[in-house]
Design brief:
The chain is mainly alpha-helical. The chain has helices at about 10-25, 40-55, 65-70, 70-90, 95-100, 100-105, 110-125, 130-135, 140-150, 155-175, 180-185, 190-195, 200-215, 220-270, and strands spanning about 30-35, 35-40. It is built from 14 helices and 2 strands. Pfam families: DUF3100 (PF11299).
Length: about 270
């Protein structure tokens, strides 16, 4: 099926429309957990409904081919979302500009994926895939770097793509739950949390931002601005940070950890 013919696929469009309407009708669900509350947003329901229509065999409304060829429509929808957010953030530009240095410095935290995820990946039995899995947040710049350096048939590429796919599917669900809890516990301010959710993909950012706006509607323009500027800056800096700093560090850490693991295994055999 050609991409232009996708517009004529009425079954797919009706299924997605029904998922969106039902998700909106359910609305926001607040689940109290002690002193905090877990907020479930319509975006999460819509993703779950769509996944069910794709996976459940007896009533499988969406085929693999349809899923793959729907990507251009997703990008079109994201364009409208970005325009809406851009208009919303204008009133909060002054406060955003005052925090510009912090927005840049926070990207150093991306290196945390190396020290947190790499040891776990190796313990779970990953080999060279661990490098692709853990050297960055596995957004598009990371995929480009791994493809150029190791090739599209490498173990490193399998690792980065696995992380990208899992993040695309489950990332918005995670972002739709955790940021609100951080704010409720008082660990971070709403503005700092908005900056943090901006480091993820557009879908992840939208999910986390929706929760924050629901909790602090009076700060909508500021929170939207912090999240969007953070997303843009993270996208620009992630490439150079990953290429010149994160990937070399990951390679050295991988060599060190696997060497120690080999030594321990050798001692155990003896």
């Amino acid at each position: 099926m050609e991409p232009t013919e996708l517009w004529k696929d009425w079954k797919l469009h009706i299924a997605m429309f029904v998922c969106a309407v039902v998700a909106q009708k359910i609305g926001i669900i607040n689940i109290p957990i002690g002193p905090v509350s877990l907020m479930l947003m319509p975006l999460i329901y819509a993703m779950v409904f769509g996944l069910a229509l794709y996976l459940i065999k007896p009533i499988k409304f969406i085929s693999t081919k349809q899923s793959e060829e729907s990507s251009p429509l997703l990008m079109l929808a994201v364009m409208f979302l970005c325009v809406k957010m851009g208009v919303t953030m204008i009133p909060g530009l002054a406060s955003i500009m005052s925090a510009s240095a912090i927005l840049v410095i926070q990207n150093i935290g991306n290196l945390g994926t190396i020290f947190l995820a790499l040891p776990v990946a190796i313990l779970l039995g990953c080999k060279r895939e661990a490098v692709g899995l853990s050297f960055a947040l596995s957004r598009e710049p990371g995929i480009a770097i791994i493809t150029d350096k190791y090739g599209a048939k490498s173990k490193e590429f399998q690792g980065v793509m696995a992380c990208y796919i899992v993040g695309t599917i489950f990332g918005p669900v995670f972002f739709g739950m955790i940021p609100g809890l951080f704010v409720d516990f008082g660990w971070f301010s709403p503005e700092a949390t908005a900056m943090a959710v901006g480091c993820g993909s557009t879908a992840m950012m939208t999910s986390g931002l929706t929760v924050l706006i629901a909790k602090f509607p009076e700060l909508e323009s500021q929170l939207t601005g912090f999240a969007m500027i953070s997303n843009v800056i993270s996208g620009l800096l992630a490439f150079y940070l990953s290429l010149f700093l994160a990937l070399p560090i990951t390679e050295k850490c991988y060599a060190l950890l696997t060497r120690r693991k080999a030594v321990k295994a050798e001692k155990g055999e003896k």
